Amino acid sequence: VGADEQHSKCPCCRSPFGGGDVVPDLELKRKMDGSAMATCPFPNCGAKVPLRDVKSHHAKCEYMPVRCRYAPFGCAWTGPKRDIKGHEGVGCHLAKVSGVVEQLRLANEHVKAQGVQVAQLRQALGGVQQVMGMNRQAFVQLQRSVVARADCPADMARLVYNAACHPIRFLREKERWKEFWGTEEGRARVMNAL
Q1: How much is the pLDDT for 117?
Q2: Where are the domains of the chain?
Q3: For residues 79 and 60, is the Cβ–Cβ distance under 8 A?
C-alpha cells in the first residue's frame, strides 16, 4: 500500500479509503463498451443509438433543430434539419432576395476581415512609433553630444538662431557652444553675427 492510497479520500463524502475499498463499476464499463443505448433528444426522432455514437448521430440527425441561413438578416424560422430546404426554397421571404443577401453577407465578411487588418496595422504602427521615439531620443542625445565648431557657418547660424529666438534651448545646449565662447575669436564671430 503506497502513501497515496493511505491518504485517499472519497470525492463525495471525503471519508478515507484504501486500495482494497475500490470496486470496479461493471455497469459503467458495460455502458462505455457500447451495449448501453441512448435516445435521441430531438423532437420526433426517438432513435436509439449506442452511447459512443450519440455525438455523430446528433450531427446528422434529420430532426436536429436548425435556424434558417438568413437568420442573421432577419428570418426567425427554426425547425428540423429535414425541412430547411423546403423553407429556404419556398417559405423564406429572404430567400427571394438571396442574391442581395449573399452580397450583404460577403460585404460583412469583407468588413470583418478589414477590421482584422486594421487592428494588425494599428499594432504594427504602434511598434513603428515606439521605434521612432527611441530613434528620436537617440538622435537628440547624439545631437547634444556633438560639439559645435566655430569655423562652421551652419553651426554659427544655429548658435545665433538659438541665442536670439530660443534662449531656453540655447541654455540647455550650452555644452555644444563652448568652443564659440572659449576663444576671443569665437566670441567676436558670435557678436558680429548678432
Answers
A1: 95
A2: 1-33, 146-194
A3: no
pLDDT of residue 2: 45
Q: Are 144 and 136 in contact (CB under 8 A)?
A: no
Residue ranges, the chain, pLDDT below 50: 1-5
Count Cα neighbours of 17 within 13 Å in the Cβ-side half-sphere: 12
Residue 189: the pLDDT is 75
Sign of the alpha-carbon torsion through 70, 71, 75, 77: positive
pLDDT of res. 149: 67
pLDDT tens for each residue of 119-166: 999 999 999 999 999 998 888 777 766 666 666 777 778 777 877 888
Task: Judge whether 18 and 30 are in contact, CB under 8 Å.
Answer: no
- Listed as own residue / partner, the contacts of 164-171 with beta carbons closer than 8 Å and 24 or more positions apart are 164/194
Helix H, strand E, coil C: the string for the chain is: CCHHHHCCECCCCCCECCHHHCCCCHHHHHHHCCCCEEECCCCCCCCEEEHHHHHHHHHHCCCCEEECCCHHHCCCCEEEHHHHHHHHHHHCCCHHHHHHHHHHHHHHHHHHHHHHHHHHHHHHHHHHHHHHHHHHHHHHHHHHHCCCCCCCHHHHHHHHHHHHHCHHHHHHCHHHHHHHHHCHHHHHHHHHHC
Say how far apart CA 72 and CA 180 lie, in whole Å. Answer: 75
